[in-house]
Amino acid sequence: ASIRRTLSQVYAEINQEYFYFADRGCIINLANVKGMDGENIVMPDGQHITISRSNVTEFKSILLHFWEKQI
């Protein structure tokens, strides 16, 4: 038997301190973020994940807070 859930349901169940719900199709592990390039989140493999302009400031704040806790 399989259990089907939306990503927003999965996101609600995981530790949100370590993850960011980028859009309807993508949950990002903050520990794997290399940086930002404009509206793109840069991953270690070079992949770029675009987030909306309205979420860039929020994401940068969340990422900075996450990185500060890692030091």
Detailed description of the structure:
35% of the residues lie in helices and 25% in strands. It is built from two helices and five strands. Strand 3 (35-37) and strand 4 form a beta hairpin. The longest helix has 18 residues, at 53-70. The radius of gyration is 13 Å and the shape is globular. It starts with 6 loop residues before the first helix and ends with a helix. The model has no long low-confidence stretch (mean pLDDT 91).
Short summary:
With 71 residues, the chain is of the alpha+beta class.
The secondary-structure element order is HEEEEEH
Integer average pLDDT: 91
Q: Give, in spatial order, the strands making up the sheet with the most strands.
A: 3-4-5
- Would you identify the regions where 5 or more consecutive residues have pLDDT less than 50? none
Quote the beta fraction: 25-35%
The count of DSSP E runs of length 2 or more, i.e. the number of strands, is 5
**What's the tally of helices?**
2
Rg calculated over all Cα atoms: 13 Å
Question: How far apart are the termini?
Answer: 42 Å
Helix content: 25-40%
User: How would you sum up the global shape?
Assistant: globular
Keywords:
71 residues; alpha+beta; three-stranded antiparallel β-sheet; two-stranded antiparallel sheet; 2 helices; globular
